[in-house]
UniProtKB/TrEMBL annotation:
Name the UniProt record assigns to this protein: Nuclear transport factor 2 family protein
SUPFAM superfamilies for the chain: NTF2-like
InterPro entries: NTF2-like_dom_sf, SnoaL-like
Residue intervals passing through the bilayer: none
Domain SnoaL-like: 11-122
Domain of life of the organism encoding this protein: Bacteria
Length: 132
């Protein structure tokens, strides 16, 4: 993995989140991915489990609930790339209504490990709500 490939993956990650398209989501991850929404979670294991969690609407597995179209945006950039490990940071912005004022901003850090095909096989998210 290099910085360019890492940025391309992060851009596809944001695109998949904006679309909630199962094929776009699945293309990001290896078959046996271990995915954590929080560092303290037991991981979701497997691409199908991650896709199902992303497209669900309820957060029953500890995930976020599905966001309404037009109410969120995000940008992430790699800050460290070491072999198959990438650390990225960025921000996620939420609005209560599309085109409404910003309601919340989260600062995020992702720690990821990739397979030889450029699919993420380990993903852990760290985030904090930015003070208003």
């Amino acid at each position: 993995m290099d910085r360019t490939s890492a940025q391309e993956w992060l851009d596809r990650y944001v695109g998949a989140w904006l679309s909630y398209d199962p094929d776009e989501i699945g293309a990001l991850f290896s078959e046996d991915v271990a995915y954590r929404y929080h560092a303290y979670d037991e991981p979701l294991v497997g691409r199908d489990a991650v896709v199902a969690s992303w497209v669900a609407d309820g957060g029953e597995d500890g995930s976020s609930t599905r966001d309404a179209p037009g109410t969120y945006e995000a940008s992430y950039t790699p800050v460290a790339v070491d072999g198959d490990v990438v650390v990225a940071q960025g921000a996620t912005t939420y609005r209560k209504t599309p085109d409404g004022p910003v309601h919340q901003v989260y600062d995020n850090c992702f720690v990821m490990r990739f397979d030889d095909a450029g699919r993420c096989r380990e993903f852990t998210e760290f985030y904090v709500l930015r003070p208003s």
